[in-house]
Amino acid sequence: MIDRSLNYGRHHVRNFLIRSQPFQSVLDLGAGNGSDLSLASEINPTASRIAIEVYPPNVERLRGQVSAVIPIDIEHEALPFAAGQIDVVIANQVLEHTKEIFWIFHEVSRILPEKGKFIIGVPNLASLHNRLLLLLGHQPSPVKTASAHVRGFTKPDLLHFVDSCFPGGYRLAGFGGSNFYPFPAPIAQPLASLFPSMAWGIFLLLEKTRGYTDEFLRYPKVQQLETNFFLG
């Protein structure tokens, strides 16, 4: 009954890419089978499309479809680009798999120029079905221990994280929700449009608004978070 393909919110990614024009380079962190980069190609066929991907079947699938495939660990390696070199970065259903959120946002903020765009899609910890699961004493589905997900996100907390670490560094330029458990697609999508903060997934378009000077790396030290985050 549930259409899980809607979890990827590709209509939002397409819309955010359209709103990010003009762009000449798009970097996809965890590109998977390349669907989001294909959207970028449809919108701007001349743009450079770069995939960060480590899963071997996906690496092979992407070769020949995109400008470059770079198999690096985004949690412990620097992105091989100069400051301000990439116009748009996409992280769709990736950040929930990562611990090193400070390092990832540092690298993204380093390579984006002012007015560069960061497109984020993550499962929504505050979705209707997760609220009901918690009410019944069950674990929310995005952060089950026996799964690949290690982080949970809500719109307010994600924006609080960004503004706490890099005050005034990004503005929210777009927001939407996609899919709405446990309903089928004809019902789920209208509900997600009406109540995006309660949808299965949330999608944000962040625009970088000022110069970046390692704020995401300084935050864990200044706040003494007492956790061995990777900071380069």
Description of the structure:
The protein has eight helices and seven strands. It starts with 9 loop residues before the first helix and ends in a 10-residue tail after the last helix. The protein has a single domain (4-214), classed as Rossmann fold (3-Layer(aba) Sandwich), CATH 3.40.50. β4 (88-92), α4 and β5 form a beta-alpha-beta unit. α1 runs parallel beside α2 (35-43) and α4 (101-111) packs antiparallel against α8 (215-222). The chain is of the alpha/beta class and 232 residues long. 32% of the residues lie in helices and 18% in strands. It has a seven-stranded mixed sheet with strand order 3-2-1-4-5-7-6, sandwiched between helices. It has helices at 10-19, 35-43, 56-62, 101-111, 128-135, 155-165, 185-194, 215-222; strands at 25-29, 48-52, 68-70, 88-92, 117-123, 170-178, 201-208.
User: Unreliable segments (pLDDT under 50, ≥5 consecutive)?
Assistant: none
Oligomer state of the chains in this structure:
single chain
Distance, first to last CA: 45 Å
What CATH architecture would you give?
A: 3-Layer(aba) Sandwich
Mean residue pLDDT: 97
Order of helices and strands: HEHEHEEHEHHEHEH
* CATH topology description: Rossmann fold
In short:
The protein is of the alpha/beta class. The protein has one domain (4-214): Vaccinia Virus protein VP39 (Rossmann fold). It contains 8 helices and 7 strands.
Keywords:
232 residues; alpha/beta; Rossmann fold; seven-stranded mixed β-sheet
